């Protein structure tokens, strides 16, 4: 019975890692759809979000089932409670990829990204994908030094986010309100995605140490 219980615990962790893989792929494809005005790719991101949602519901159900039947304590209880929070972070990450894909779909056949901002959006997309993949690695390894790297990655995302606003507030901006709204939304989605990865890092730190820490303590 206990072997089955721990197999189920391990299965929840594996499910979270798989969610991070799927979300990272979604973010990458959504970024490409946004930059290239690729309607087919955008639609695939939107449709395949259901796979992430199904996994979310499955992990949540497994965690609640173990809480009810096994009444875990100490470390096992932390694993389940933390998993229930991380699964929400990962599900939201998938949602942000869908939001990006919907911007691409809304502006098709044109690209929603002005030429001068393509490199910045590309870098944000690459940074976002890397953050999500790293979040999965943090979940799998429970490596606190890797968790700390996510904080620094989030700082890089914040700088890119600021770069977008600098461009849009410039007197040389010539793309109008519609483009400004699209870019503002895209930047916000990337920035929030990174915030959820930071939340995962903090939750893993709690899982390992049993103590709640702020971001500065995690970096140190």
Structure description:
- The protein is mainly α and 220 residues long.
- It has a single domain (2-219), classed as Methane Monooxygenase Hydroxylase, Chain G, domain 1, CATH 1.20.58.220.
- Helix content is 86%, strand content 0%.
- The chain has 7 helices and no strands.
- It has helices at 2-36, 39-70, 74-107, 118-141, 144-168, 176-209, 215-219.
Count of DSSP strands: 0
What structural category do the secondary elements indicate? mainly alpha
Helix count from the secondary structure assignment: 7
What's the N-to-C terminus distance?
Answer: 41 Å
Along the chain, the helix and strand elements come as HHHHHHH
Whole-number tally of structural domains: 1
The CATH class, by name, is: Mainly Alpha
CATH architecture annotation name: Up-down Bundle
CATH topology heading: Methane Monooxygenase Hydroxylase, Chain G, domain 1
- CATH H-tier superfamily: Phosphate transport system protein phou homolog 2, domain 2
Low-pLDDT parts are 216-220
Largest sheet: none
Keywords summarizing the entry:
220 residues; mainly alpha; Methane Monooxygenase Hydroxylase, Chain G, domain 1; 0% strand; elongated; disordered C terminus
Topology:
Elements: H1 2-36, H2 39-70, H3 74-107, H4 118-141, H5 144-168, H6 176-209, H7 215-219
Helix pairs in contact: 1-2, 1-3, 1-4, 2-3, 3-6, 4-5, 4-6, 5-6
